[in-house]
Amino acid sequence: MWLMTRYEDIRSVLADVSFSVSPVGTSEANDSIFQDPPEHTRLRGLVAGPFTPRRIEPYRAAIDAMAKALLEPLARVSGPIDLMERFARPLTMNAICEVVGVPAADRELVRRLTDQLLVPSSEAEGAVAFGGWLELNGYVTSLIARRRGEHREPDSDLIAHLLCDKDGSTVPDVELTTMVLGLPIAGYVSTANAIALAFRYLLTDGWLETLRTAPDSPRLQALFVEELLRMQSGDNGESMPRFASVDVQWGDTTIPKGEMVVAPLVAANRDDTVFPDPDTFDPHRPSSAKHIGFGVGIHRCLGANLARLELQCAVAALVNSTLCFELAEDWAAISWSSNMFGDRYPDRVLASVTTEGTVHRAG
Ligand code: HEM
After folding, report:
1. pLDDT, position 75
2. Given phi > 0 = left and psi -120 to 50 = alpha, else beta, which region is 137?
């Protein structure tokens, strides 16, 4: 395979449609968005509308309220709390469910089933993942059947948008189900993990205090989120391998048709010609907006606007609360797992939460 290591080359590969997401010669039936044009264009076109900035921004108030509601009871719990379990994961899942149109009463169930599906890779072949998949599939199928019988404004959520009979054609059930099922899988661990990284810099590097006292806090919070997205590359949301669909001339080299090309976002986002001192977390860096944590080109993350909004709401809720957090173990001692999709995530982030005292700086 060919490995791209520079920012510009990685961007160029991802933007170049001569590179396919499937090995040349395989055209298996696939109902997901992870395929090439023209099918990709058609499927992405079906779901793109509800994820534009104009359609996502109105969710800010609801996601802000979710974040505050999750934080509110924490100070009353004695002993360390797992911030992944009590904050990052439910916030992310609830936000995706809100956009998709999963009723509030069913969100815990969807999260439990998705957790069951996204088991550590060592158990990936096991009955746990398979059972979770079947149950989640069953739930989504029944939800769509239920929703077909309801009248909703097409703009109210993603399922309503997909069910609306725009030009006399309806989206087949199998595509609808695959699309709805894919979203928590694509957007859940990745965004929850970025929130975990927010805890790291807020609680161990003094950023909670900095953001609480900064005169231009909202602007700095937005930059903080962009730097999180740059730094989390490699853990989550890495680009899929690409395959040359024709012989591609790359500088003075030819990449022969059919060969695999890996264009890692982690390398692009740590290219020191674009991000000097790349391993340092620095929200003030002038090139902050250049990160490609959501990819480039036609496969650029569908949920980017939602993920960014969730992160902004999570950080704002933590900064605007009066809570103090003390990590129960040093960040470096936290154990991480990875699931069968290659996402890496901390098993837990344990902290004592109080409304008094000072923010503890560990690690
Ligand atoms: C911080 C969180 C997230 C990160 C870092 C992330 C990252 C990425 C990246 C890098 C890609 C492109 C992969 C490639 O080019 O091979 C991608 C694609 C995708 N993401 Fe995300 N993502 C995040 C959150 C979300 C959310 C919240 C959703 C949906 C609710 C989502 C849905 C998708 C989908 C459907 C695709 C495939 C797009 C296509 O092929 O056209 N992601 N994501």
Report:
1. 87
2. alpha
pLDDT digits (tens, 9 = 90+) for 326-351: 999 999 999 998 887 788 899 999 99
Question: Rounded mean pLDDT of 239-252?
Answer: 94
Q: Which two tokens stand for residue 99?
A: 């956009």
Q: From ligand 1's centre to the CA of 363, what distance in Å?
A: 31
Which ligand 1 atom sits nearest the alpha carbon of residue 239? 16
Of 157, 135, 145, 188, residue with least CA distance to 62: 157
DSSP state of 50: G
Q: How many whole angstroms separate alpha carbon 339 and alpha carbon 362?
A: 28
Q: What is the largest CA-CA distance in the chain?
A: 64
Give distance in angstroms: CA of 33 to centre of ligand 1: 11
Q: Are 224 and 207 in contact (CB under 8 A)?
A: yes
Q: Which of 231, 298, 302 to mutate to test the pocket of ligand 1 (most atoms within 8 A of CB)?
A: 302
Atom of ligand 1 lying closest to residue 194 CA: 1
- Which residue do the tokens 């899929």 mark? 240
Q: Atom 17 in ligand 1: which residue has the minimum CA distance?
A: 301
